[in-house]
């Protein structure tokens, strides 16, 4: 197994998402929608 020198890009995104706090319910919904959009795009990119 090779040793990784840089931080994992996926973990950087997850870490960034956990560090952001929602100001109100609308802001939280917008953050969740961004997560859903990224997941949906990822699913589209990996379809066979």
From TrEMBL:
Residues 1-20, 36-48 have a biased composition (Basic and acidic residues). It comes from the Bacteria. Residues 1-48 are annotated as: Disordered. This is Small, acid-soluble spore protein gamma-type.
